[in-house]
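Ligand-bound model needed. NAP.
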Amino acid sequence: MRVAIVTGGARGIGYGIAQALAKEGYSLAILGRSSHTDVKERIAQLPAAAQPHLYFQGDLANAQHRTAFCRRIMDTFGQIDVLVNNAGVAPKVRMDLLETTEESFDFVMDINLKGTFFLTQQVANLMIQQNRPGKIINISSLSAYAASTNRPEYCLSKAGISMVTKLFALRLADHGINVYEVRPGIINTEMTAPAKTKYDALIAEGLTPIRRWGTPQDVANTVSALCSGKFSFSTGEVINVDGGFHLREL
Ligand code: NAP
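Prediction:
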């Protein structure tokens, strides 16, 4: 049996990752704020694994919820092989750098950066205790390096995730735990739905060398490859899944 945690694994990119890992035989522990009723159909549609998948309703930003989630995972499965830090939010309202509020800053940072950091800390300690090789994969964004002045808190949170990747990669290397960062570009999910028309036009004009939207499956395929063990001498690596957006042209 192999166990993978996927935060935000009941929809969007996370659900694509959950589908891919379940197909490969992982039993999943999924965290999300949605109710069981809202997600039960989607969870039931995931390929079955050695042990039934676990869905835990909780807020990544809440320390008690994170601890309760980890306890449930250990009570249910007794082990963790993979942690995919995927859950994340955009600001509720996009606001200019000169206008944005502390409330919006805290909302985004508490989930995307602080929640992810402290969940990773807890899971890393559990992985060390169980003394088995593990993998941690952080889903960041092109916003880790591309500055958007109308959502500074999102960019800061994702730039922070890049450092979370480096820090844990260094600290956990001696424990046989490899840490990677996957940087999606423009992916077709509910998060990007409000900007669909804008991105349709930009992509058609060549914003991404590969002129199409990315899909949750594109990101999931990369996560699956990183979990395969074929990158066992690499840690702290960043993989762009962005249709070539990060390339500079002169
Ligand atoms: P999405 O469709 O909005 O899904 C976000 C997921 O995160 C949902 O499953 C949501 O579940 C969960 N989540 C949000 N806040 C949470 C919280 N406080 N506690 C627990 N779970 C929480 O977004 P997505 O497009 O799939 O994005 C997934 C990740 O990829 C995010 O980190 C995002 O920043 C990153 N990303 C996305 C794109 C893109 O173009 N879509 C590009 C680059 C990076 P509930 O609603 O049930 O809480």
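The domain at 2-238 is CATH 3.40.50.720 (Rossmann fold).
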